[in-house]
Amino acid sequence: MKTNDVIFQTIAKVVFFMIIFFAVHLFFAGHYHPGGGFVGGLLTSGAIVLLMLAFDMKTIKKGFLIDFKWLISLGLLFSAGTAAGSLIFNVPFFTHAYDYFQLPLFGKTSLHTAMLFDLGVYLVVIGVTMTIIQTIGESE
Amino acid sequence: MEILMCIVAGLLFAAAVYLMLSKSLLRIIVGTGLLSHGTHLMLLTMGGLKTGAAPVLGENTASYTDPIPQALILTAIVISFGVTAVFLVIAYRAYQELGTDNMDQLKGTEADD
Amino acid sequence: MINLPVLPILIPLIAAIVLLFVSKSILAQRVVSVIASASTVVSAMILMAKVKSDGIQTVDMGSWPAPFGITLVSDMLSILLVLTASIITLCVVLYSFRSIGNGRERFYYYPIVQFLLLGVNGSFTTGDIFNLFVFFEIMLMSSYVLIVIGGTKIQLRESIKYILVNVISSAIFVIAVGFLYSVTGSLNMAHISARISEISTEPIITVLAVLFLIIFGLKGAIFPLYFWLPGSYAAPPAPILALFGSLLTKVGIYAILRTYTLFFYHDQPFTHDLMSLLALLTIVAGVIGALAYRDVKQILIYNIVIAVGVLLFGIATMTEESIAGTVFYLIHDMIIKAALFLLGGMIIYIAGTSNLTKMGGLIRQYPALGWTFLLASFGLAGIPPLSGFSGKLLIVRSGFSEGEYVGAIVVLLSSLAVLYSVVNLFMEAFWKTPETPLPDVKKRTGSLFIPAASLVLLSVLYGVGTEAVYPYVMQAVQTLIHPEIYIDAVLKE
């Protein structure tokens, strides 16, 4: 059955980027405000699922070029690597470092190593959620 | 308030037990979901319920919520999310492979080992 | 190097991540797995030497001081178990090369094994009760994958029950941790121990004790809660079964040992008597199963249940001698169960069936396998000077000196039953004239035999060298008997 979902597809294309930007905003808000890698990741995968609903799975998979399972490994590497970085400096495992930087455009910004960890969480969440949805959804 | 929450958690547990005792695999999985919801509600109640302040130690520390149960719940939610996903996928595969989602027929006999 | 206790947890994690990246190449996976498992063993050995010389090692993760953050605590008990678990994993990985099958190897078998080791080592090392739950979940999640990997019908069927049981026990675990938190206001195990000893007369502590016994009993397969074990463990192939049988149930036992010596030692007339009763019922149930079945896997699986009963009885008696016996027996049982399951897997591989009535006469073609199996069987039953002897001796002796005559006698008799069941297995599989003559072609089993035999050798060395192991075990026992040592080391008072 072929349904005419032009409206859905057009809106999905726009809304996709809105959700992604909101997800990124949430991700960066995660240090001192509600948000963080987990929520950001969930939202991002929500956006991808929206695209998958509007178009079909194969098109989206071709468009993304990356294997979501690979994202899981990459995310784990980021998280574990950040935690293991403390081994080099001989401070207790998971100790994080932070400082304030004067960045162009952003002004005074605090940068944490915890953010790298959170980036790992973000990638893992996207990878895991998308893998689950693909596994169940593909075999229709 | 705590007592009300305990009762709600108890109701969730009751529903979860009822669902998990049924024969359909999907109902069982929904039951485990309810079970973990009940657990998380219970955990939230365990820390003591206070209203009106964020769970962060700020400048005014007159009334703040204990952050530990919330951190625990977040962890527990993520874990139960993962477990439910694994359970769903395995149940789906089992349904495809074995051709049934009825627990009675999933018992297995000596013959098919 | 202040992060030494982290290494046996971190190395499997890093290895698992690397393995996820190279999941396409089987050769690379094997190489990385072996290197990682071997380096986990080495790091555990270094850590053990450090604990022996400097006492308990702790790491406050993220530099949060002890009662507030998560603390990893390596005392002698935990590091002994970590070392044993790592050695077993190394042997199982070597054994898997030729037995697990290419399909499973390509489908993330090796990373999951490393994740399992991460969960097991983490559970042994952590000093935070909620973190224990998290590591339990890592371990269980890996075991869900391992039990279903390969996707045969029986595996799919059994994995559903296995997951359901464990989901329920995890939910109870979270509730119990919540209870404990609302009573003591802390999650750090040392801190909880100190707080509980201030309010030890409260009946809620006894309730908590029973709750935790139920949770860990479900994982560790004690009497009324072992129902899921025989079915689920029979489903996966031998190397996975060896990992499950030697590591998973023992983590449950470790958790009981830890919580009952650190938290719940105040109301012993109730809690420990209850545990003692359950221990004896566990032994009886295991013996019935082990004697009734005519199947290699089932006989060995019911022997797990018997060993759990013996260990639980040792914990329930709760004297210095019985705890020493428990620690001895725990390590022995991990090694010997892994060895027996690997050897049993070879028997099944050679005979093509796990049904004892259909096999026989293997000794003619596989004499080395036969005699090694017999040696391992004697070790399991605790024949001196093999490794099961000293642990059981200490447990039984303390049972008699504490007036637990029935229990001690049941434990003694269980050894006879164990001996009968495994020697019967040996006679049936190796000695009996087979119904159908064996094919003349000898299957190549060298690469399977070496890891299994080295575990048996380790077990023999452990038995013969009891004197050398004794100081290590006694250091572990001192921490268990005197919780103050543990508390002081963690809270640095």
UniProtKB/TrEMBL annotation, chain A:
It comes from the Bacteria. The chain crosses the membrane at residues 12-32, 38-56, 68-94, 114-133. GO terms for cellular component: plasma membrane. Keywords: Cell membrane, Membrane, Transmembrane, Transmembrane helix. It is a multi-pass membrane protein. Residues 7-131 form the Na+/H+ antiporter MnhB subunit-related protein domain. It is found in: Cell membrane. This is Na(+)/H(+) antiporter subunit B. Belongs to the CPA3 antiporters (TC 2.A.63) subunit B family. Signal peptide: none annotated. It comes from Domibacillus mangrovi. Pfam families: MnhB. InterPro entries: CPA3_antiporter_subunitB, MnhB.
UniProtKB/TrEMBL annotation, chain B:
Gene3D superfamilies: 1.10.287.3510. InterPro entries: CPA3_antiporter_subunitC, NUOK/Mnh_C1-like. The keyword Transmembrane applies. It is found in: Cell membrane. Coiled coil: none annotated. Keywords: Cell membrane, Membrane, Transmembrane, Transmembrane helix. The chain crosses the membrane at residues 71-95. GO terms for cellular component: plasma membrane. Its main location: membrane. It is a multi-pass membrane protein. It holds the Pfam family Oxidored_q2. PANTHER family: ANTIPORTER SUBUNIT MNHC2-RELATED (PTHR34583). Belongs to the CPA3 antiporters (TC 2.A.63) subunit C family. This is Na(+)/H(+) antiporter subunit C.
TrEMBL record, chain C:
One of its GO terms (molecular function) is NADH dehydrogenase (ubiquinone) activity. It is found in: Cell membrane; Membrane. The chain crosses the membrane at residues 6-23, 30-49, 69-95, 107-124, 130-150, 162-184, 204-228, 240-262, 274-293, 300-318, 338-356, 368-386, 406-427, 448-465. Keywords: Antiport, Cell membrane, Membrane, Transmembrane, Transmembrane helix, Transport. GO terms for biological process: ATP synthesis coupled electron transport. It comes from the Bacteria. Coiled coil: none annotated. InterPro entries: CPA3_Na-H_Antiporter_D, NADH_UbQ_OxRdtase, ND/Mrp_TM. GO terms for cellular component: plasma membrane. Residues 128-415 form the NADH:quinone oxidoreductase/Mrp antiporter transmembrane domain. It is a multi-pass membrane protein. The keyword Cell membrane applies. Belongs to the CPA3 antiporters (TC 2.A.63) subunit D family. This is Na+/H+ antiporter subunit D. It comes from Domibacillus mangrovi. The lineage of its organism: Bacteria, Bacillati, Bacillota, Bacilli, Bacillales.
